[in-house]
Protein backbone atom coordinates (compact mmCIF):
# COMPACT_ATOMS: atom_id res chain seq x y z
CA UNK A 1 0.00 0.00 0.00
CA UNK A 2 1.26 3.51 -0.89
CA UNK A 3 2.36 5.43 2.20
CA UNK A 4 0.46 8.59 3.09
CA UNK A 5 2.48 11.83 3.02
CA UNK A 6 2.98 13.50 6.33
CA UNK A 7 3.90 17.21 6.28
CA UNK A 8 5.64 18.28 9.41
CA UNK A 9 4.73 21.78 10.56
CA UNK A 10 7.55 24.35 10.25
CA UNK A 11 9.65 22.07 8.04
CA UNK A 12 10.51 22.24 4.36
CA UNK A 13 10.47 18.48 3.75
CA UNK A 14 7.86 15.73 3.58
CA UNK A 15 8.15 12.33 5.30
CA UNK A 16 6.01 9.30 4.65
CA UNK A 17 4.20 7.21 7.24
CA UNK A 18 3.65 3.71 5.80
CA UNK A 19 0.50 1.87 6.87
CA UNK A 20 2.21 -1.50 6.82
CA UNK A 21 5.47 -3.11 5.84
CA UNK A 22 8.99 -2.27 6.95
CA UNK A 23 9.59 1.25 8.18
CA UNK A 24 11.43 3.68 5.92
CA UNK A 25 13.79 6.23 7.48
CA UNK A 26 12.59 9.80 6.92
CA UNK A 27 14.92 12.29 5.23
CA UNK A 28 16.96 14.35 7.63
CA UNK A 29 15.87 17.95 8.14
CA UNK A 30 18.31 20.68 7.07
CA UNK A 31 20.55 21.60 9.92
CA UNK A 32 21.02 25.10 11.30
CA UNK A 33 24.19 25.69 9.32
CA UNK A 34 22.43 25.01 6.03
CA UNK A 35 19.55 27.34 7.01
CA UNK A 36 22.05 30.02 7.90
CA UNK A 37 23.84 29.64 4.57
CA UNK A 38 20.59 29.86 2.67
CA UNK A 39 19.63 32.99 4.58
CA UNK A 40 23.01 34.52 3.81
CA UNK A 41 22.52 33.79 0.12
CA UNK A 42 19.10 35.41 0.18
CA UNK A 43 20.52 38.47 1.94
CA UNK A 44 23.30 38.84 -0.62
CA UNK A 45 20.83 38.34 -3.44
CA UNK A 46 18.53 41.05 -2.07
CA UNK A 47 21.43 43.44 -1.58
CA UNK A 48 22.69 42.73 -5.09
CA UNK A 49 19.23 43.30 -6.55
CA UNK A 50 19.11 46.70 -4.84
CA UNK A 51 22.49 47.99 -6.03
CA UNK A 52 22.72 46.14 -9.36
CA UNK A 53 19.59 47.16 -11.25
CA UNK A 54 18.22 45.38 -14.30
CA UNK A 55 16.27 48.36 -15.62
CA UNK A 56 16.47 52.14 -15.49
CA UNK A 57 14.41 52.92 -12.40
CA UNK A 58 14.26 55.33 -9.50
CA UNK A 59 17.56 54.20 -7.97
CA UNK A 60 19.45 54.61 -11.25
CA UNK A 61 17.90 58.06 -11.68
CA UNK A 62 18.81 58.99 -8.10
CA UNK A 63 22.47 58.04 -8.60
CA UNK A 64 22.52 60.00 -11.86
CA UNK A 65 21.25 63.16 -10.17
CA UNK A 66 23.64 62.59 -7.26
CA UNK A 67 26.55 62.45 -9.71
CA UNK A 68 25.50 65.74 -11.30
CA UNK A 69 25.02 67.49 -7.96
CA UNK A 70 28.32 66.20 -6.53
CA UNK A 71 30.34 67.31 -9.56
CA UNK A 72 28.65 70.72 -9.47
CA UNK A 73 29.38 71.00 -5.76
CA UNK A 74 33.07 70.51 -6.51
CA UNK A 75 33.08 73.77 -8.49
CA UNK A 76 31.51 75.59 -5.54
CA UNK A 77 33.92 74.23 -2.93
CA UNK A 78 36.90 74.77 -5.21
CA UNK A 79 35.79 78.35 -5.73
CA UNK A 80 35.45 78.91 -1.99
CA UNK A 81 38.99 77.59 -1.53
CA UNK A 82 40.25 80.19 -4.00
CA UNK A 83 38.10 83.07 -2.75
CA UNK A 84 39.13 82.53 0.88
CA UNK A 85 42.82 82.35 -0.03
CA UNK A 86 43.01 78.71 1.08
CA UNK A 87 44.47 77.23 -2.09
CA UNK A 88 47.72 76.40 -0.32
CA UNK A 89 46.07 75.73 3.04
CA UNK A 90 47.53 72.25 2.61
CA UNK A 91 50.98 73.09 1.21
CA UNK A 92 51.62 69.68 -0.34
CA UNK A 93 49.81 66.72 -1.91
CA UNK A 94 48.65 63.97 -1.44
CA UNK A 95 49.37 64.67 2.24
CA UNK A 96 48.18 67.90 3.77
CA UNK A 97 51.67 68.44 5.20
CA UNK A 98 54.85 66.40 5.02
CA UNK A 99 53.99 64.90 8.42
CA UNK A 100 50.19 64.70 8.34
CA UNK A 101 47.43 63.52 6.01
CA UNK A 102 44.96 65.91 7.64
CA UNK A 103 45.00 69.59 8.47
CA UNK A 104 46.21 70.56 11.94
CA UNK A 105 45.03 73.20 14.39
CA UNK A 106 48.13 75.28 13.68
CA UNK A 107 47.10 75.56 10.00
CA UNK A 108 43.97 77.45 10.99
CA UNK A 109 40.87 78.02 8.88
CA UNK A 110 42.70 77.93 5.54
CA UNK A 111 43.99 74.43 6.19
CA UNK A 112 40.55 73.22 7.27
CA UNK A 113 38.90 74.66 4.15
CA UNK A 114 41.41 73.10 1.75
CA UNK A 115 41.32 69.75 3.55
CA UNK A 116 37.51 69.80 3.48
CA UNK A 117 37.64 70.36 -0.26
CA UNK A 118 39.90 67.34 -0.63
CA UNK A 119 37.49 65.20 1.38
CA UNK A 120 34.81 65.88 -1.22
CA UNK A 121 36.79 63.58 -3.52
CA UNK A 122 35.69 60.61 -1.41
CA UNK A 123 32.04 61.69 -1.62
CA UNK A 124 32.39 61.87 -5.39
CA UNK A 125 33.99 58.42 -5.41
CA UNK A 126 31.13 56.85 -3.43
CA UNK A 127 28.54 58.43 -5.73
CA UNK A 128 30.44 57.36 -8.85
CA UNK A 129 30.75 53.75 -7.66
CA UNK A 130 27.03 53.62 -6.80
CA UNK A 131 26.09 55.00 -10.22
CA UNK A 132 28.40 52.54 -11.98
CA UNK A 133 27.14 49.50 -10.08
CA UNK A 134 23.53 50.55 -10.65
CA UNK A 135 23.91 50.09 -14.42
CA UNK A 136 26.41 47.24 -14.47
CA UNK A 137 23.74 44.70 -15.43
CA UNK A 138 22.47 47.09 -18.10
CA UNK A 139 25.81 47.29 -19.90
CA UNK A 140 24.62 45.19 -22.88
CA UNK A 141 21.24 46.83 -23.30
CA UNK A 142 22.45 50.37 -22.48
CA UNK A 143 26.18 50.59 -23.21
CA UNK A 144 25.88 54.39 -23.14
CA UNK A 145 24.90 54.26 -19.45
CA UNK A 146 27.85 52.00 -18.72
CA UNK A 147 30.31 54.20 -20.63
CA UNK A 148 29.13 57.48 -19.08
CA UNK A 149 29.29 56.18 -15.51
CA UNK A 150 32.71 54.65 -16.16
CA UNK A 151 34.08 57.94 -17.55
CA UNK A 152 32.61 59.90 -14.64
CA UNK A 153 34.27 57.48 -12.23
CA UNK A 154 37.66 57.68 -13.94
CA UNK A 155 37.43 61.47 -13.92
CA UNK A 156 37.69 61.53 -10.14
CA UNK A 157 41.30 60.30 -9.83
CA UNK A 158 42.18 62.50 -12.81
CA UNK A 159 40.79 65.52 -10.97
CA UNK A 160 42.67 64.54 -7.82
CA UNK A 161 45.99 64.31 -9.68
CA UNK A 162 45.46 67.64 -11.46
CA UNK A 163 44.54 69.17 -8.10
CA UNK A 164 47.82 67.86 -6.69
CA UNK A 165 49.74 69.36 -9.61
CA UNK A 166 47.96 72.65 -8.93
CA UNK A 167 49.30 72.65 -5.38
CA UNK A 168 52.83 71.63 -6.40
CA UNK A 169 52.97 74.38 -9.05
CA UNK A 170 51.96 77.02 -6.51
CA UNK A 171 48.46 77.57 -7.99
CA UNK A 172 49.71 78.19 -11.51
CA UNK A 173 46.70 79.79 -13.28
CA UNK A 174 47.10 77.60 -16.37
CA UNK A 175 46.84 74.44 -14.26
CA UNK A 176 43.97 75.92 -12.23
CA UNK A 177 42.17 76.58 -15.52
CA UNK A 178 42.63 72.97 -16.62
CA UNK A 179 41.32 71.84 -13.23
CA UNK A 180 38.16 73.89 -13.75
CA UNK A 181 37.65 72.76 -17.35
CA UNK A 182 37.78 69.10 -16.31
CA UNK A 183 35.03 69.84 -13.79
CA UNK A 184 32.99 71.50 -16.54
CA UNK A 185 33.37 68.43 -18.77
CA UNK A 186 32.32 66.17 -15.89
CA UNK A 187 29.20 68.27 -15.31
CA UNK A 188 28.36 68.17 -19.02
CA UNK A 189 28.65 64.36 -19.07
CA UNK A 190 26.72 63.97 -15.82
CA UNK A 191 23.88 66.15 -17.13
CA UNK A 192 23.81 64.16 -20.37
CA UNK A 193 23.57 60.97 -18.34
CA UNK A 194 20.74 62.35 -16.19
CA UNK A 195 18.70 63.24 -19.24
CA UNK A 196 19.15 59.80 -20.80
CA UNK A 197 18.18 58.03 -17.60
CA UNK A 198 15.11 60.26 -17.22
CA UNK A 199 13.99 59.28 -20.70
CA UNK A 200 14.51 55.58 -19.94
CA UNK A 201 12.94 55.63 -16.47
CA UNK A 202 10.02 58.04 -16.93
CA UNK A 203 7.43 57.16 -19.60
CA UNK A 204 6.15 60.75 -19.83
CA UNK A 205 9.64 62.03 -20.63
CA UNK A 206 10.19 59.22 -23.13
CA UNK A 207 6.98 60.21 -24.91
CA UNK A 208 7.89 63.92 -25.05
CA UNK A 209 11.42 63.21 -26.24
CA UNK A 210 10.65 60.34 -28.60
CA UNK A 211 13.07 60.09 -31.55
CA UNK A 212 12.06 60.87 -35.11
CA UNK A 213 10.58 64.31 -34.46
CA UNK A 214 11.09 67.42 -36.60
CA UNK A 215 12.52 65.56 -39.60
CA UNK A 216 12.57 68.72 -41.72
CA UNK A 217 14.41 70.72 -39.05
CA UNK A 218 16.82 67.95 -38.07
CA UNK A 219 19.96 69.51 -39.56
CA UNK A 220 19.15 72.99 -38.24
CA UNK A 221 18.43 71.77 -34.71
CA UNK A 222 21.61 69.72 -34.54
CA UNK A 223 23.79 72.48 -35.98
CA UNK A 224 22.44 74.98 -33.47
CA UNK A 225 23.04 72.50 -30.63
CA UNK A 226 26.65 71.89 -31.65
CA UNK A 227 27.29 75.62 -32.02
CA UNK A 228 25.74 76.21 -28.61
CA UNK A 229 28.06 73.66 -27.00
CA UNK A 230 31.13 75.18 -28.70
CA UNK A 231 30.25 78.74 -27.68
CA UNK A 232 29.57 77.61 -24.11
CA UNK A 233 32.96 75.85 -23.96
CA UNK A 234 34.76 78.95 -25.28
CA UNK A 235 32.89 81.12 -22.78
CA UNK A 236 33.89 78.92 -19.84
CA UNK A 237 37.53 78.69 -20.95
CA UNK A 238 37.89 82.45 -21.40
CA UNK A 239 36.30 82.79 -17.98
CA UNK A 240 39.21 80.82 -16.50
CA UNK A 241 41.62 83.28 -18.13
CA UNK A 242 39.72 86.21 -16.62
CA UNK A 243 39.87 84.49 -13.23
CA UNK A 244 43.60 83.83 -13.60
CA UNK A 245 44.14 87.51 -14.33
CA UNK A 246 41.93 88.87 -11.56
CA UNK A 247 42.64 89.55 -7.89
CA UNK A 248 41.42 86.28 -6.33
CA UNK A 249 44.57 84.19 -6.71
CA UNK A 250 43.70 81.52 -4.16
CA UNK A 251 46.41 82.31 -1.61
CA UNK A 252 47.37 85.29 0.51
CA UNK A 253 51.00 84.97 -0.52
CA UNK A 254 52.66 85.78 -3.82
CA UNK A 255 51.10 83.66 -6.58
CA UNK A 256 51.84 83.65 -10.31
CA UNK A 257 49.04 85.28 -12.32
CA UNK A 258 48.23 85.66 -16.01
CA UNK A 259 49.72 88.77 -17.59
CA UNK A 260 46.70 89.58 -19.76
CA UNK A 261 45.25 93.05 -19.65
CA UNK A 262 42.25 92.70 -17.35
CA UNK A 263 39.94 94.86 -19.46
CA UNK A 264 40.87 93.20 -22.75
CA UNK A 265 40.51 89.62 -21.51
CA UNK A 266 37.17 90.47 -19.87
CA UNK A 267 35.87 91.89 -23.15
CA UNK A 268 37.11 88.80 -24.97
CA UNK A 269 35.21 86.68 -22.45
CA UNK A 270 32.04 88.66 -23.17
CA UNK A 271 32.13 88.12 -26.95
CA UNK A 272 31.08 84.43 -26.98
CA UNK A 273 28.43 85.31 -24.38
CA UNK A 274 26.89 87.79 -26.82
CA UNK A 275 27.07 85.20 -29.59
CA UNK A 276 25.46 82.59 -27.34
CA UNK A 277 22.60 84.91 -26.41
CA UNK A 278 22.04 85.74 -30.09
CA UNK A 279 22.09 82.05 -31.08
CA UNK A 280 19.58 81.05 -28.42
CA UNK A 281 17.29 83.98 -29.22
CA UNK A 282 17.37 83.21 -32.94
CA UNK A 283 16.73 79.51 -32.27
CA UNK A 284 13.71 80.33 -30.10
CA UNK A 285 12.29 82.58 -32.81
CA UNK A 286 12.88 80.14 -35.66
CA UNK A 287 11.89 77.09 -33.65
CA UNK A 288 8.71 78.51 -32.16
CA UNK A 289 5.88 76.23 -33.27
CA UNK A 290 8.23 74.21 -35.49
CA UNK A 291 10.71 72.52 -33.17
CA UNK A 292 9.73 69.88 -30.60
CA UNK A 293 8.45 71.51 -27.44
CA UNK A 294 11.02 69.78 -25.23
CA UNK A 295 13.90 71.24 -27.26
CA UNK A 296 12.37 74.72 -27.40
CA UNK A 297 11.91 74.77 -23.63
CA UNK A 298 15.46 73.55 -23.05
CA UNK A 299 16.77 76.40 -25.21
CA UNK A 300 14.61 78.87 -23.27
CA UNK A 301 16.13 77.67 -19.99
CA UNK A 302 19.64 78.05 -21.43
CA UNK A 303 18.81 81.60 -22.52
CA UNK A 304 17.52 82.54 -19.05
CA UNK A 305 20.61 81.11 -17.34
CA UNK A 306 23.00 82.89 -19.71
CA UNK A 307 21.27 86.24 -19.23
CA UNK A 308 21.44 85.75 -15.46
CA UNK A 309 25.13 84.87 -15.69
CA UNK A 310 25.81 87.94 -17.83
CA UNK A 311 24.10 90.23 -15.32
CA UNK A 312 26.15 88.78 -12.45
CA UNK A 313 29.30 89.14 -14.55
CA UNK A 314 28.61 92.80 -15.30
CA UNK A 315 27.86 93.46 -11.63
CA UNK A 316 31.08 91.91 -10.37
CA UNK A 317 33.14 93.66 -13.05
CA UNK A 318 31.84 97.13 -12.19
CA UNK A 319 31.90 96.56 -8.42
CA UNK A 320 35.42 95.25 -7.84
CA UNK A 321 34.66 91.49 -8.04
CA UNK A 322 33.07 91.04 -4.59
CA UNK A 323 33.32 87.53 -3.19
CA UNK A 324 29.56 86.93 -3.02
CA UNK A 325 29.08 87.89 -6.68
CA UNK A 326 32.04 85.76 -7.76
CA UNK A 327 30.60 82.79 -5.85
CA UNK A 328 27.24 83.22 -7.57
CA UNK A 329 29.03 83.45 -10.92
CA UNK A 330 30.83 80.18 -10.20
CA UNK A 331 27.59 78.41 -9.32
CA UNK A 332 26.02 79.94 -12.41
CA UNK A 333 28.77 78.51 -14.60
CA UNK A 334 27.98 74.99 -13.37
CA UNK A 335 24.26 75.57 -13.98
CA UNK A 336 24.97 76.94 -17.45
CA UNK A 337 27.06 73.92 -18.45
CA UNK A 338 24.36 71.55 -17.16
CA UNK A 339 21.52 73.33 -18.97
CA UNK A 340 23.50 73.45 -22.21
CA UNK A 341 24.13 69.71 -21.86
CA UNK A 342 20.41 69.10 -21.34
CA UNK A 343 19.54 71.14 -24.44
CA UNK A 344 22.17 69.49 -26.65
CA UNK A 345 21.23 65.98 -25.53
CA UNK A 346 17.52 66.62 -26.11
CA UNK A 347 18.21 68.13 -29.53
CA UNK A 348 20.08 65.04 -30.69
CA UNK A 349 17.66 62.60 -29.03
CA UNK A 350 14.45 63.88 -30.60
CA UNK A 351 15.99 64.20 -34.05
CA UNK A 352 17.50 60.72 -33.95
CA UNK A 353 16.01 58.12 -36.28
CA UNK A 354 17.09 55.25 -34.04
CA UNK A 355 14.91 54.18 -31.14
CA UNK A 356 16.54 53.82 -27.76
CA UNK A 357 16.71 50.27 -26.37
CA UNK A 358 13.31 49.37 -24.98
CA UNK A 359 12.93 48.80 -21.27
CA UNK A 360 11.13 45.62 -20.15
CA UNK A 361 7.60 46.13 -18.80
CA UNK A 362 7.43 47.01 -15.13
CA UNK A 363 6.95 44.00 -12.92
CA UNK A 364 8.29 41.52 -15.45
CA UNK A 365 11.27 39.41 -14.52
CA UNK A 366 14.32 39.53 -16.71
CA UNK A 367 16.98 36.82 -16.90
CA UNK A 368 19.35 39.05 -14.96
CA UNK A 369 16.81 39.38 -12.15
CA UNK A 370 16.51 35.62 -11.83
CA UNK A 371 20.21 35.07 -11.21
CA UNK A 372 21.84 35.16 -7.81
CA UNK A 373 25.06 36.69 -9.14
CA UNK A 374 24.62 40.49 -8.89
CA UNK A 375 27.34 41.19 -11.47
CA UNK A 376 25.92 38.99 -14.21
Automatic annotation (TrEMBL):
Which BP terms in the Gene Ontology apply to this protein? heme A biosynthetic process
Q: Which domain of life is it from?
A: Bacteria
* Gene Ontology CC terms: membrane
Record keyword Disulfide bond present: yes
The pathway entry for this protein reads as:
Porphyrin-containing compound metabolism
Give TM segment ranges.
59-81, 119-138, 145-168, 174-194, 225-245, 265-286, 298-317, 323-344
Query: Where do the segments described as Disordered lie?
Result: 1-40, 354-376
Instruction: Output compositional bias ranges, type Basic and acidic residues.
Output: 1-11
Offer an example of a GO molecular function term for this protein.
Answer: metal ion binding
Topology class, membrane: Multi-pass membrane protein
Q: What is this protein called?
A: Heme A synthase
Q: Which UniProt keywords apply?
A: Cell membrane, Disulfide bond, Heme biosynthesis, Iron, Membrane, Metal-binding, Oxidoreductase, Transmembrane, Transmembrane helix
The primary location reported for this protein is membrane
Q: Please provide an example of a Pfam family that matches this protein in its UniProt record.
A: COX15-CtaA
Q: In which compartments does the protein localize?
A: Membrane
Amino acid sequence: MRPEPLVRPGREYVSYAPTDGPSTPAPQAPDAEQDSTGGSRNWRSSLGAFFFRTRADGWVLFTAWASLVANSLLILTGGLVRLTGSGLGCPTWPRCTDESWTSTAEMGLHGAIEFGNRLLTFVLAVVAVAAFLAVLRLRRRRPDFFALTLILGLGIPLQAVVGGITVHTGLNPWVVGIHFMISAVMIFLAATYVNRVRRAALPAVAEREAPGQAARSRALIRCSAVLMAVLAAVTVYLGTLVTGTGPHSGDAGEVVRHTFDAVSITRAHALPVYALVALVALSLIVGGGRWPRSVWRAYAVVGAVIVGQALIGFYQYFNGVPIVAVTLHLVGSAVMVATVAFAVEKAFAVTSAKNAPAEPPRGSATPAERTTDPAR
